[in-house]
Each structure stands twice: as structure tokens, then as C-alpha cells.
Design a protein that fits this description.
By secondary structure, this protein is α/β, with parallel strands linked by helices. The protein has helices at about 20-35, 75-90, 100-110, 135-145, 160-170, 210-225, 240-250, 265-270, 285-295, 305-310, 325-340, 345-350, 355-379, and strands spanning about 10-15, 40-45, 60, 95, 120, 155, 175, 200, 230-235, 255-260, 275-280, 300, 320. Strands 3-2-1-4-5-6-7 form a 7-stranded parallel sheet, with helices on both faces. Strands 10-9-8-11-12-13 form a 6-stranded parallel sheet, sandwiched between helices. It is elongated.
Length: about 375
């Protein structure tokens, strides 16, 4: 059995390798930690999903004999299976990536002290959503306190989210760390000035991403004569493809709007774009905003994520608009298409602290501290 006190042993739990921001960041961190010499074990309920093929061969991949696929009650089964596995194959720290996986934190925290890892939990999505209503929000807060009562640290993506998390948990548990959304390539490499009038959006084709609002907003530009030679490209795949295609047809936008499907890397699309739009109804932190700025592209985003306050406050970085407001979104696109393109190098400099190498080392340093604290407390 590997030693519980191994100085560089990190566990991660994922339900599967679906095309989600949480899964992508977890795989990126696992790869970087393994490249930096840590012993990294990723326990997956099922070896399903396209992100599986991005996992570095140096990361140990474990899964139950009978795959646990997403279904009612599957997260509870995943939590129990992960606790059994790491109870038999101890690690110093376990990383629980994102709100969806929080039940895993409780199961890991209930392991006996002889094998219990330090539990680091990430907050990846908004803790307060107006659409929940007050009663559902109270229930959400109670569930969060129950699931995270045994976590050793909460990793949040901005100070505001940390304050909210500490208030809900009724204890100081949060540590803000940047979202590791960018590779370690030189920040100014291959930066190109924006040409043309292509508006780019990207994400899963699901209602929460607000692409229907974006299509409606773009149709307003076309009807107002403000979209001459402008195009809208929505990169991504998902269950809403047919509905969005119908909407494009209804608005007579087939000449102006295209949906080319899933892209492993949106950087080539960003290099061709004049601006990026995030029209979501709600988001976690919005890693794609970081990617767009790193490519030197200004961003229009709804007020769906703390990243709007963190990243778009600098002059020229972008504009924010209300959620589900096609008129405001259309006006913002018209203004940005007519304004001179900002200096791409200046925009890229705003997100340098999101490089994967430096952020992964911050995570690893935090893991060592909480593991040592737990070891000292249980000795």
C-alpha cells in the first residue's frame, strides 16, 4: 500500500470526462502535477467522454469494475466508491473539483484518520442564483454546509466567492486561487491584431449558455443594418443544436450565423475573431473569458460570473450587459464592432496570472500545508 505520508501524492475524483469546464480544469491540473513529479491518481466513475484523451499517461487512472454513469443517485454511488478506493490506496490530499462533486468531499472526510486524506474542495459555480428563490437558496446553503463540513479547505476563484462561501459555511475555510485556464506558452506568442468583423461565442449548446439570446441579439443588428459583413460563429456541441438551428432559420440568419461544432482548442477561432461574447444565464468563473483576453480579444459578457468584475474592469477589456437582455447585448456588440480594436498585448497581460504552471504550484503548495496540518492534528 502506498504510504499515506508520501509527500507528493494527490488524488482527484471525477464522475467522467464530459465536456465541462470543471472536468477540463481537473484534467489540466492533474497533468501539470504529474509533470511536476507528483504521484497523481484520478478516480473516475466511468472512463467516458472526450476529455479522457487529454489525460497525461503519467496520471494514474482508476475506476470501479462496474462503471458509474450519470443517473439519479450516481453521485452518491461515486462518492462511496471513491472513499473505498482511497481508503485502500491512501493519498496525502484529495482534490474535489467543483460543486457537482461535493458529495465526494463528505465521503472522503468520513474515512478513518489512519487513511483519511486532506480534502481540498473547489467552488466552481455561483453559490447564489436569483432564479433559485429564497427557500431553495436556504436549502442549497444547508446542503452545502452538510456536504463540506469535513473539508479542510475551499478553493475559490475570487475573493467575493470566498466571502460568500465562508458566510454559508459559518467558518473561514476559503482560499482564493486563480483559475488555471491558460497554457504556459509565452503570453505574447503569436498574438495577432483583430481583423474583420467575426463575433465568436463558444460553449456547450445548452440553455444555460444563452446562445438563443445571442442569436436574437445578432438578428437585431442585422435588422438595424449594423451587421454589414459581420458574422457570428458559435463553437460547441450539445443537445440544443437543433433548437438553435431552427432559431437561426426563423430569423433568416443562415448567411450570417454558423455553428461549426466542437473544437478541441478555440484559440484558432479567437485568432480570427474581432470580439468574444459570453451570453450565459449563469456561469462558474467563465474560463473562456480568460482565454479570449489571452488571445488579445475584448469580451462582452452577461453579469453571470464573478469574472466580469475581476477581468473586464480595465478600459478596453470588454463590456458587461444584463442577463437575458438581447437589446443590451445587441447594443454592446454594435458599439464594440465600431470601436477601434484594443491592443492585444495589453489584454493578454491582464490574465498572465492564470497560467497553468504557476497556479498548479500554488495548489500543490496549499495541499502540502493542509496535509501537514491534518497530520499534526491527528498525531
Amino acid at each position: 500500500m502506498p504510504s499515506l505520508r508520501s509527500p507528493e501524492s494527490i488524488g482527484i475524483v471525477l464522475h467522467d470526462f464530459a465536456l465541462g469546464g470543471t472536468e477540463r480544469i481537473a484534467v489540466r491540473l492533474a497533468n501539470q502535477w504529474a509533470a511536476d513529479g507528483a504521484i497523481v491518481t484520478l478516480f473516475a466513475g466511468a472512463r467516458d467522454g472526450p476529455l479522457l484523451y487529454l489525460l497525461d499517461s503519467r496520471v494514474r487512472l482508476a475506476s470501479p469494475a462496474d462503471p458509474i454513469r450519470r443517473s439519479p443517485g450516481s453521485m452518491k454511488r461515486l462518492a462511496a466508491a471513491a472513499a473505498r478506493y482511497f481508503g485502500q490506496h491512501p493519498v496525502r490530499t484529495c482534490f474535489v473539483p467543483g460543486n457537482y462533486h461535493w458529495p465526494v468531499a463528505l465521503a472522503l472526510g468520513q474515512l478513518p484518520n489512519t487513511v483519511r486524506p486532506a480534502v481540498a474542495v473547489q467552488v466552481s459555480a455561483a453559490l447564489h442564483k436569483p432564479q433559485r428563490g429564497p427557500l431553495r437558496q436556504i436549502a442549497y446553503n444547508q446542503r452545502m454546509r452538510r456536504l463540506l463540513c469535513k473539508s479542510d479547505v475551499l478553493i475559490v476563484l475570487c475573493t467575493r466567492a470566498g466571502q460568500e462561501a465562508d458566510r454559508i459555511l459559518r467558518r473561514r475555510a476559503s482560499i482564493p486561487l486563480p483559475l488555471p485556464a491558460l497554457d504556459d506558452r509565452p503570453s505574447l506568442q503569436d498574438l495577432a491584431g483583430a481583423r474583420g468583423r467575426m463575433v465568436l461565442a463558444a460553449g456547450r449548446l445548452v440553455r444555460e449558455k444563452g446562445f438563443d439570446i445571442l442569436i436574437e441579439a445578432f438578428s437585431r443588428l442585422v435588422r438595424a443594418g449594423q451587421a454589414a459583413d459581420a458574422t457570428l460563429v458559435i463553437v460547441g456541441e450539445g443537445p440544443d443544436r437543433e433548437r438553435l438551428a431552427t432559431l437561426i432559420h426563423q430569423h433568416g440568419l443562415h448567411v450570417h450565423v454558423s455553428m461549426p461544432g466542437y473544437a478541441k482548442d478555440i484559440r484558432p477561432w479567437l485568432d480570427r475573431a474581432r470580439l468574444f461574447v459570453l451570453p450565459s444565464r449563469f456561469e462558474g468563473y467563465g474560463a473562456v473569458i480568460v482565454e479570449a483576453l489571452a488571445a488579445g480579444r475584448p469580451v462582452i459578457a452577461t453579469r453571470c460570473t464573478p469574472a466580469v468584475d475581476d477581468l473586464l474592469r480595465e478600459t478596453g477589456a470588454g463590456l458587461d450587459v444584463p442577463i437575458e437582455d438581447p437589446a443590451a447585448l445587441a447594443d454592446a456588440m454594435a458599439r464594440m464592432l465600431e470601436a477601434p480594436a484594443p491592443d492585444p498585448a495589453r489584454l493578454a497581460s491582464l490574465v498572465e496570472h492564470h497560467r497553468i504552471g504557476a497556479v498548479a504550484r500554488e495548489y500543490a503548495s496549499l495541499f502540502r500545508r493542509i496535509a501537514e496540518r491534518r497530520h499534526t492534528a491527528s498525531s
